[in-house]
Structures are given as structure tokens and as C-alpha cells.
Amino acid sequence: MSPAHLVPVFGLARELELVGRFCEQTEVNKESHATLLMGPHNTGKSLVLNTVLRDLEARTGNKPVVIVLDGYLHADEAAALVVIGDVLGMQAELAQQQQRQTQADQQQQLQQEQEPEQEDKQEEQEHERQQESAARASAAEEISAITELTFHSTVLAMLNCWKQVNPGRAVFFVLDQMELFTKSKQNLLYSLLNLMQEKEPPVAIIGMAGVLHIMDMLEKRVKSRFSDRYILFLPNASMEQALHILRHVLLLPDGFSTHPHAKEWNSRVVALLEDKEFLEFLAQRQDVKSDPKDLFNLLHVAMKDIDERHPFLTVHDFRKAAAFMSPDMKLQALKGMPAAQSSLAGIVFLRAPALEMGLLVAMKLFEEDKIEEYNFEMVYDRFQKFARDEFMSVTKPTAFAAFESLLEQELIKKVARRAEEKATPKGFLMVRLMPIPAQIEDVLRDPACMLPQSVVTWGTKWVS
């Protein structure tokens, strides 16, 4: 389970209601149940469960007793017993400390009110301590005597000892990465589900699976205990939700209104979230990764460059963060190419990396003109107009060699079928640009690429 987030849950109202109703039946109504939370990773399963448990604690005044068993670490019964014993032992000790503190307060009050009865009270307290010690020794002997018995009997004995000092409290077993518990015999799952047959304490078994076919992986005896009790989580973050999350996280609250920097920060954030270039970037990002966790990670990386010299977020910060989190290896290869150009007698000769980037810029301009398919002849004609204006010399065979290099690197892709490809001259085969224009702009703006300033200006002037 992931740690609790600092922001409200967005877009999961239905899931919150269902999980909240399930946990309330166990904690408040004292009913034992089992349910499955199914869905891909980063769809909000842990976030919803953590939120519901915090809400239960706020309403009941008691922190829920949660035992988390991770499929990576606790798939075998011995490791699971250690975790269960630790949690129940700590909870029992906490309850005993609270009980002793309450008794101490009551004793102090009685001593002040009834001084003559002090000796009798001390004898009674000593008798209670002896009874408590005897009960502890008996419980310890009971647990040690059954360590060689089955996993179910051991856990049941622990729960019986625990409920003596925590009457009426519920226990939540959370099986994280539940699909990993199904790799071998599912005795552990079956034993935990059998705990629901006991009247006390009430037990909730919550399985969290990152695969949707988890029901097919369960044995019949385990599957029957879950029946139809499962909640499906699917990625459903929309553009509006993403903007709502960013607005909630980035805007400073009213408590910062007196700070001289707060007002300008909030105005810059509002302007950024309404910027056309940023909205296009965010829409492209949402098409690839739409889960809120990825958005928080992106924001975390973008914020790391904020300092006194760069006090406000920009679109470039988000693009840089996205490139850091999901680097495009093809464009990274282009960035790593050395040597941009050379000159002789005032004529500039483009070397291969800069020439390839020049052809990519020509295709990028076609994309901005809403032309999605083009051939070498079209690209070369457009590039030649730029080259003549900049006094550059690029022969057609050299440009075609650079064009074929782009095909080999899969930066452009043929769109013709094989039959059409054989019948069409190479220079007239239609291709499509694979990187999006924004990625090419990032390469052009990167000083480390050492591209000619004329190529950079040609590729970015329309954007500016």
C-alpha cells in the first residue's frame, strides 16, 4: 500500500463509496466480509483504501487495525505469521498501556478522595496485577503450545488473545499484490478467509490485484469466498481532472496571501494552466499516461529546478521533466551526434546530423500545415528553399542519404504497402514523421546538440 496522499481523491467517487460501505460493515456493524479491488497499477486502489481507513478513524475515534501482507514478501505462511504477530502484539500492548493509564488516573483520584481506604485499595490492585500477569502467561503458553499446528490455528489463537484486550474491534487483512499469492498452493488465502467464520473479532479480507483476471487464478475454494464481491478500478483521468489536480496542488492557499511572492505565483500558475502550448502538451501526455500518480511524478520532477533565479514554472519545465521520465531514445541518439556544420569560401556545408535535423524540420512544418504524409521530393524542395536563403550547399544525393538514414533510425516510417513500394520510385514513396513536433522543438532548443543557429531559427520561429 502506498503512503497517504496530501490531496483529495479525484474521479473515484463511486469506488470511494463502495469501499467505504464495505469497511463500515466490518468496523461499525461488526460483520466479516471479503472483497477484491482489481485494476491496473496506479489506478487508485491503495489511495481509496487509505482514504476510507482515515475517514473511519476520524468517525470512530479508533485507528483501524490493518495487517498488510505483500505478495512479494509474505507469500509463504511463516513470513505472514511474523507480520500478523507483530501487528497484533503492538496493538495489544497499546491497549494495555491505555488501560493501565486509565486505571492509574482512577487510582490517583480515589486516593485523594478516600485516604483511609488506601491499604485495601493497594491489596486489590496487587491482586489485579497478579491476575493480569497470570492471563499473559497463560496466553503466551497457549501460543507457544500451538506453534507447530496449522497456520489457521496459530492466527486464530493470536486473534483470540488479542480480542481479550480489544473487545469489539475489527481486523483488516490487506493482501497487496494478491496475484502473487496464487503462484503456489493457496492454503494461506484459504486459511485467512476461514477466519470470517468466527464470530469475534470481525475480520475484513481485502485483496488488491494488479491484473483483471485474478478470479481465474484463484482455486475454487478461494473463489467461492469472494463470490461477486469485487470492485473494478480503471484509468479514467480526463483532461479536466488533470487541470483540477494541478490547480489544487499548485495554487497557494489564502494563508499565504500576505507573502509578497504568493500573489504573483498564483497568477503565473493560472496563466500557465490556460496557456495553449501547455494545454497541448498536457493533452498529449494524457493520451499516453492518464493516471494521476504519473501527473504527480511529472510535477515533482518539474518543480526541482525552481529556485531564486528561476522562480516560476514554465512549459519548458514540464517538457524537460517528461523527457527525463520517459526519454525518447531515437531523439536522444540525434542529440548525441557531434559536429553540426563546416564552411568553405563562405558556403556552409551541413554534416549528416544537422542535415537530418533539417529534413525533420521540413517534415515538422508539413505537419503544422496539416499535411501528414509526404515524400522525399516534397521534403527536399522545402528544405532547398531554406538552404538557398541561408547560402547552404546540399546536393540531392547527400540529402537522400540522410533521408534513408532517418528511415533506418525509424524517425520516419513508410506508409505505402509492399506492392505499391515496389512500383513507386524511392523518391516518391510517402512517409510519415514518427516524433511529434514538440519533441523536435525540444531537440532544437537544446544547446548541447550544437545545431546551426539557422536551422534552430527555421524550426522554432513559427512556434515563437
UniProtKB/TrEMBL annotation:
Residues 99-113 have a biased composition (Low complexity). Residues 99-137 are annotated as: Disordered. Residues 10-206 form the Orc1-like AAA ATPase domain. One of its GO terms (molecular function) is DNA replication origin binding. It comes from Acanthamoeba castellanii (strain ATCC 30010 / Neff). Residues 245-443 form the Origin recognition complex subunit 4 C-terminal domain. This is Origin recognition complex subunit. It is found in: Nucleus. Keywords: DNA replication, DNA-binding, Nucleus. Pfam families: AAA_16, ORC4_C. InterPro entries: AAA_16, ORC4, ORC4_C, P-loop_NTPase. Residues 114-123 have a biased composition (Acidic residues). One of its GO terms (cellular component) is nuclear origin of replication recognition complex. GO terms for biological process: DNA replication initiation. Belongs to the ORC4 family. It comes from the Eukaryota.
